[in-house]
Amino acid sequence: MQTTPEQTLASVNNEVPLQRNRDFVLLTIAGAISSIGGRVSQLALPILALALTNSPALAGLLAAAQQLPYLLFSIPAGVWVDRADRKRVLVACDLIRFLLLLSIPAAYALNALSVAQLFVVVFLQGVCTVLFAVAELAALPSVVARHQLAPARAVNQGVESAAEVLGPSLGGLVIGAGGGGIPGAALAYLVDGLSYLASGGALLAIRRKLQAAERPAGGRLREALAEGMAFLWRSKPLRFLMLLTASLNCLQAPLYLLTVIVAQNRLGLSAPQLGLVFGVAGAAAVLGAAIAPAIYARVPLRAILAGSSVVWVAAIAVLALADNMAALTLAWVLIHLCWPAYDVAVVTERLAATPDQLHGRVISAFRTVSYGVEPLGVALGGLLVAITGATPLLLAISALHAFCAAWALRGALPQRR
Q1: pLDDT greater than 80 at residue 1
Q2: CA gap 131, 80 in Å, rounded
């Protein structure tokens, strides 16, 4: 007999506040540490790629290689996460990423760092990140009660937002302390690698099992892979949320690379200044995460989806025309401010509608589509910016967000619980 979402969530102590829920706190701390480290290397990658190759197109392909595992492995990852011990999956992903990222400063120290190594490292890091993200989110209903899903997801978003504040700022300081360019970026990868080691230690301290006692039986992989996508596709509202999110992610995938190009070529910003831009934007995301549960509870879902898209139209237009650091910062503040409410709404609706045995596969299917388009978006962005320049490309991306806003006003939506 399958465990329903209600049965799974009812097994969690409804009386324990999130801040006193030991295992939820540990899961959150682990995610926080690795997220901060990840933002450090996220800033380092385009700087390192541009320094090594002097090619925006190749830098875009490197960023695409890091995102490609979302397309290739998200659904298989969900099957594994549903069948395996989720805690072991999380710890193993952290340890593997620790070793991968340490290879970059080691290769630099040996004067052996190459673009080929970067492609291998960022791709394998992406594989581990896919597994970690699926397992972490699939574990959430096992450590909090149903009525805590939205605030718990908001806490996760707050952590991600705090990482957006601390990570880029720390990354800019680390890259600057390392001398900028290639040596500074190599030092940033060392810091990120150590963060994964610390995250793994926090995960080892979790006591509760991170899935229901009953696990899905093994079977044909193809059937298991299809189950999560079939569940999503049968639900017209969840299918719409998946496709809308995919469109937005594809459009926004090249923004980070385009911002680095604008900051370096048009504005002449240093790595610490660029880190400060993303850090201030992350502070806006912290604010967004703090108010996301209230927005989700009080604002119609359609207004959240369409309103976020409208704000992004304006934000990306500001980014396209930015001629100083303040305008660049404003653009990213607006971009980050809306994502927590959007994410809390979409993820809460999906988690509440999914049986525990399918959480991993449904999350993976959703991510395969919604994040799997990001390699295409960032690769196209890297290629097109070399042809059109940053400003026309950003204005086109802004205009396409208006179509997403109009779509959000017409698409099928879940019944609010």
Answers
A1: no
A2: 9
